Amino acid sequence: MKTNLLPAGKLPVRLLDRLLNKYASGAPGVIVGPSIGIDSAIINIHGTLLAAKSDPITFVSDNIGAYAVHVNANDIAAMGAAPRWFLATILLPECKATPKMAERIFSQISSACGEVGAALCGGHTEITPGINRPIVTGHMLGTLRGKKPVTSAGAKPGDALILTKGIAIEATSIMARELLDKLKGSFSAAFLKRCANYFKSPGISVVKDARVALENGPVNAMHDPTEGGLSAALHELSLSSGCTIIVERKLIPLLPEAKALCDFFGIDPLGAISSGALLISAPSGRADKITAALEANGIRSAVIGKVEAKGRGVSIIVDGKTKILKAFERDELTKILI
Hints:
Oligomer: single chain
Helix content: 25-40%
Number of domains: 2
CATH architecture of the largest domain: Alpha-Beta Complex
Structural class: alpha+beta
């Protein structure tokens, strides 16, 4: 029986692209509007460029306030802006909400805002029927550091592609926090604690990554690999820039704890949510300086491939053979969390 029901996760790219083209009309002052692969809107307000982003937290319940701050700050940073003001819509479950629950989320938001240089300046909080756990939707505003935004559309043929930290960092932390009971019998307590702490080390924030890259650029494009992982980010970068991309699997950093948990659950880390990594497209002659600067600031990085030519599509080299990189319609975590 055919159905029009959509699965959990992001809207299919073609559907989202059609909806944005149909309903998100341009307006005076909008420098960068919504489009596939674009991390934030950019608005000109009397000469000041403001970056604006909204993103919900749907995969986790633990430390949800901090997640909300960091994933929104990341999208602001990926546009070359500095996060400044955060608004949160906090929905607490009816018959489960307590003052302690509310304060814990507020405390998480406050601490995370301090870490990225932003301030909690507003939002909305309520007890909501029909949900069984807290949900936080964040809204981050920031100001542009340079004279113009950095967008995924800026990638150019000949650019080197740099990835910071590694893939599936956020996925690893989520699996260790949300699926702990399934993991306890197979891994040591110390190992699982380390995985859960991926949220802080190596960390899911890329605000510092973006700042260091920009200071040692030029940087033509940046993109934040979130839902759908690095694969989705690469396809979005290709679509947005109108360029073909090729990467090499063995060059893509995958930390040992991330590999172990992905292997355990049988998910592909290339398609798993990867906040904490930043994809950077920069002139190849500048790649060494950018990676050296990142390393000097305690941020691991690697050149994983290049932007090849005008066109669209992403290829990956695996064991010496080149093939099309799979585009994941749903984040790999939905297989085990939903």
